[in-house]
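Ops channel
N.P.: pipeline sanity check, posting one input/output pair.
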């Protein structure tokens, strides 16, 4: 599997897992505030990294205060943007570096493929925190295991 196909598959997983978390929080009697804050962070940071990759200079809050509906709106918009971005890159461009400034004002340079992998892993990390928080609040979290998405047919191999 080439890097395009691999990243495309990971972003399909990310989309599915975010939708599962949104559904679990919507189903809960009341979304735990920490869980909602973490989900808002996930969707905001995915948008932030997308802006950094495009080098458009757009400012995005890292820890915004969003409602569940606002999180859903942002989460639904990102998959098509990621897919279009991935399809626009050659294998060589995936390996090329991109310069950006992080939220602390530090300048960095990273390979595009490393940034893309980071986006998926960062979101998975915080979805795990959401699951723990929901359990602690006596609520049922979403199962967002990668293999669960594969079993459900939501994560397939894609050729880009």
């Amino acid at each position: 599997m080439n890097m395009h196909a691999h990243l495309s598959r990971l972003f399909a997983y990310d989309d599915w897992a975010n939708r599962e978390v949104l559904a679990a929080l919507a189903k809960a009697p009341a979304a735990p505030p920490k869980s909602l804050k973490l989900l808002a962070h996930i969707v905001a940071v995915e948008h932030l990294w997308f802006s950094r990759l495009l080098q458009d200079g757009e400012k995005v809050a890292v820890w915004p205060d969003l409602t569940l509906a606002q999180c859903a709106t942002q989460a639904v918009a990102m998959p098509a943007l990621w897919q279009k971005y991935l399809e626009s890159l050659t294998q060589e461009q995936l390996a090329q570096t991109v310069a950006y400034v992080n939220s602390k004002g530090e300048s960095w340079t990273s390979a595009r493929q490393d940034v893309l992998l980071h986006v998926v892993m960062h979101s998975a990390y915080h979805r795990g925190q959401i699951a723990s928080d929901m359990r602690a609040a006596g609520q049922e979290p979403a199962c967002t295991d990668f293999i669960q998405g594969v079993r459900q047919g939501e994560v397939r191999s894609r050729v880009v």
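N.P.: looks fine end to end. The longest helix spans residues 3-27.
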